[in-house]
Write a structure and sequence with these properties.
This is CLUMA_CG000062, isoform A. Belongs to the band 7/mec-2 family. One of its GO terms (cellular component) is plasma membrane. It is found in: Membrane. It is a single chain. The protein is α+β, with helices and mostly antiparallel strands and 281 residues long. It contains nine helices and ten strands. Helix 4 packs across helix 6 and helix 7 crosses helix 8. The longest helix is centred in the C-terminal third of the chain and has 43 residues.
Length: 281
């Protein structure tokens, strides 16, 4: 009971019904009228009052704008009253969508274009209908924003190598953000990373130069090992003159096996040095 004072002598009192009780009374009257209408129009009303949802669907029912207790209905048959009940179907199957290519500036100031695919499903039909206006559109916008935010903290090399780790980070971020909406993000995959043409050429040139450098190092190491082996062989032949003679004969044998018409006999310089001295005299 509320009391309103008009002057110092008179006090006008009146009874004000709470808002919830007025709504409840109107709802009761509307429910009774709906039941009467259903009885009058029977059996035609049976086709209007009984609804069916599939195994992968749930129905969220509102009665005069208020969410009915008992949670989402389904799967199977459920009952609604004509004129005062309306319902919304929610699909519980996993849905996938492509995130449009996003122009991302990486941590090392390289602009790349990245697109991804997101898989999600509805975990709570009531939240998906009541807490957000359009859960599908909101999830798509949030996925595009999260993709730019996550990739902006990574270098280009990390973006190209650690795709799985980046996808896992995006999945956790999206799942935490969409949990109040009743949406469960199951998986995020980065599809493609597009680099500018000039950057691709620069990376190809860098990779080619790195391969050439490695090839030169390998060739130098091979020549060093070969020179070391020749030095050891020469030292061994110096210790044993017979070994040098055997090597000389082996070389002649190899030349003769090739059936060459000309054979060159190398002579040690020690044999012809006396002749050279005589010529000088």
């Amino acid at each position: 009971m509320d009391c309103v004072t008009t002057d110092s002598l008179n006090c006008e009192c009146y009874v004000q019904m709470p808002e919830g009780q007025r709504g409840g009374l109107i709802e009761i009257l509307a429910t009774v009228g709906s039941i009467i209408l259903m009885i009058v129009t029977f059996p035609i009303s049976v086709f209007i009052c009984f609804k069916v949802v599939q195994e992968y669907e749930r129905a969220v029912i509102f009665r005069m704008g208020r969410l009915r207790s008992g949670g989402a209905r389904g799967p199977g048959v459920f009952f609604v009253l004509p004129c005062i009940d309306n319902y919304c179907k929610v699909d519980l199957r996993t849905v996938s969508f492509d995130v449009p290519p996003q122009e991302v500036l990486t941590k090392d100031s390289v602009t790349v274009s990245v697109d991804a695919v997101v898989y999600y499903r509805i975990s709570d039909p009531l939240k998906a209908v009541v807490q957000v206006a359009n859960y599908s559109h909101s999830t798509r916008l949030l996925a595009a924003t999260t993709l730019r935010n996550v990739l902006g903290t990574r270098n280009l090399s990390e973006l190209l190598i650690e795709r799985e780790a980046i996808s896992h980070t995006m999945q956790i971020s999206l799942d935490e953000a969409t949990d109040p909406w009743g949406v469960k993000v199951e998986r995020v995959e980065i599809k493609d990373v597009s680099l500018p043409t000039q950057l691709q050429r620069a990376m190809a040139t860098e990779a080619e130069a790195a391969r050439e450098a490695r090839a030169k190092v390998i060739a130098a190491e091979g020549e060093m090992k070969s020179a070391r082996a020749l030095k050891e062989a020469a030292d061994t032949m110096c210790e044993s003159p017979a070994a040098l003679q055997l090597r000389y004969l082996q070389t002649l044998n190899s030349i003769s096996a090739e059936k060459n018409s000309t054979i060159i006999f190398p002579l040690p310089i020690d044999l012809i040095s006396p002749l050279l001295n005589l010529v000088k005299k």
